[in-house]
Amino acid sequence: MKIAVLSRNRRLYSTRRIIEAAEERGHEVKVIDVLRCYMNIVSRKPSVHLEGEMLEDFDAIIPRIGASVTSYGTSVLRQFEMMGVYTLIESVALSRSRDKLRALQLLSRKGIGLPVTGFANKPGDSKDLVKMVGGAPVVVKLLEGTQGIGVVLAETSKAAESVIEAFMGLKADILVQEFIQEAGGSDIRCLVVGGKVVAAMRRQAPEGEFRSNLHRGGSASLVKITKEERATAVSAAKILGLSVAGVDLLRSDRGPLVMEVNSSPGLEGIESASGKDVAGIIIEHVEKNARPGNTKTRGKG
User: Which pTM was predicted?
Assistant: First the structure.
């Protein structure tokens, strides 16, 4: 097969592993910087171009699109779908997962366990907003934040109100969530591929920190997940329409709670912790599903 990986940096671990896994299986791989692509929006013959050449004859597209380029990256992905090319992550699903509020709303509608979450626009709402999610301590998150950036733990109601009002004063959209004390600064990352959890790891925040992101100094270790956790992760990925997803769960007294669903999950931590060839599993899924027009939305939406 001829596979295109949409990535701005081929040296990143996850991109490198996907290239290696595909080439080991005899596939031809081209890494494409999505921001350097440009599109011809023409009736019945849409196309994507790069450096004067039309990008065509690909059997599959594997998007590794960073959060900072979601809008343009999704547009390029949609264009490939309109051309009939199979995309591992569909454009609509990518958009859903990157919009944290929309993702939580979709998951809540289907009854998936979630931390109690509030969303508001005016500073005058802050006191009732904190009360609504169960009172301090609360976690305040920037809607556009990634890798633990823009996430604050407010330990008192006054602190929470101050943080909320400060973010809102900067015209930033935020979420306010209950703090799951019993999680102990850890979460579970489940890697879902094709409707199955293929690997899982426990991420633990360093001492004095509540964010367990590996980019923030958290540690990763192998973990055995429960049937309920497995089912929750698979359901969350399915609801958002993701064939590959990193589903982050918190272990709470009321069962597993979905913290976030990542459509471009990093592979380094979970491959190291689990010992699984996750990149190879992803390529196997592409091999089984890559055929012209095998995209549910085909660029719609």
Answer: 0.88
